[in-house]
Specification:
Blueprint: E1 3-11, E2 16-19, H1 39-49, E3 57-60, E4 65-69, E5 73-81, E6 84-86, E7 89-91, E8 97-99, E9 105-107, E10 112-120, E11 151-155, E12 176-182, H2 191-199, E13 202-204, E14 212-216, E15 231-232, E16 237-239, E17 247-249, E18 256-257, E19 261-265, H3 270-274, E20 281-286
Parallel strand pairs: 12-20
Antiparallel strand pairs: 1-4, 1-11, 2-3, 3-10, 4-9, 5-8, 5-10, 6-7, 6-9, 12-19, 13-14, 13-20, 14-17, 15-18, 16-17, 16-19
Length: 287
């Protein structure tokens, strides 16, 4: 992809990374999928700009970011709702906006949700690694998380973008409902622990990240005292470490692990997990 413009990072925020559809199919190499945690939000932002659905975007975490382009660009900020400003003036969230050369696109702190997505016409022009431009926090593949002063290249826009364009964006639910299928190591837990999983009042821990959504709430006691050999882990696996508090593996999860997996969350529910802020109530439902 040839760079047609570039952003200078004025404010990198708590964690801003380049993400696309990820790099599935490399678990045998120890490389997780990575990619945008809220993939539907990424695809919608790209669609509003005429980009390919999997064009690379910036994924912000909680505090947003601020960027200054060296040429006129068109951008969409979607995902978690947040205030948006261009050149110090309020701008539309969830719809294409023109950002003149030298003006600052300011993506504010998330008001609802966790991760906002900054898409730009032409996509982010990072160098692909194993077919993806995604930042992988676990393996270190892909571009480093943004720092103040970093320059981010932008590809050539596919075609002129009509303005204004708007689309319905789902908001974060007050309760995160995660449908699960038991296994593969449900037999390592007592019937009481399985009932607790299906009925317990959990909430999202502030220690969650792109690797896993950690839970606070009633612990699940292991019924077996043996040691489980390391085995493959999949996206959505609900792993239970010795403290008994479930962890739902997200896109940057390790590809192997030695703690038992009591259940697996159905993949379509994981986009909502990406937007669940600390303290959000969580309910596991047997699918």
């Amino acid at each position: 992809m040839t760079a047609a413009a570039a952003f200078t990072t004025v404010r990198s925020g708590a964690l801003t990374t380049v993400q696309d559809a990820g790099r599935p199919g490399h678990a045998h190499l120890g490389v997780p999928r990575s990619g945008a945690l809220d993939a539907p939000a990424m695809r919608l932002a790209n669609r509003l700009l005429g980009n390919a659905p999997d064009a690379a975007v910036l994924e912000t975490t909680l505090t947003g970011c601020a960027l200054r382009p060296d040429r006129d660009v068109t951008a969409v900020v979607g995902g978690a709702y947040c205030p948006v400003a261009v050149g110090g003036r309020p701008a539309a969230w969830g719809a294409p906006v023109r950002v003149p050369a030298g003006s600052v696109l300011d993506v504010g702190a998330a008001v609802a949700g966790v991760r906002s997505y900054v898409a730009v016409a032409g996509g982010i022009a990072a160098e692909p690694v194993l077919g993806s431009r995604s930042t992988d926090l676990l393996s270190g593949l892909g571009p480093d998380p943004l720092r103040d002063g970093d320059v981010v290249a932008v590809g050539t826009a596919p075609r002129p973008v009509p303005l204004p364009v708007a689309a319905p964006w789902p908001g974060p639910a007050p309760e995160l409902v995660l449908p699960v299928r038991l296994g593969p190591r449900a037999d390592w837990f007592s019937p009481a622990a399985l009932r607790t999983l299906a009925s317990g009042a959990y909430r999202v821990s502030p220690h969650s990240n792109r690797i896993g959504l950690r839970m606070e709430g009633p612990p699940l006691q292991h019924a077996s005292t043996g040691e489980l050999p390391s085995e493959g882990m999949v996206l959505g696996a609900v792993q239970v470490p010795p403290d008994g508090h479930p962890v739902v593996f997200l896109n940057d999860h390790p590809t192997t692990g030695g703690y038992p997996v009591v259940a697996v969350v159905l993949e379509p529910a994981l986009a909502a997990a990406a937007q669940a802020a600390a303290g959000t109530p969580v309910r596991f439902v047997l699918a």
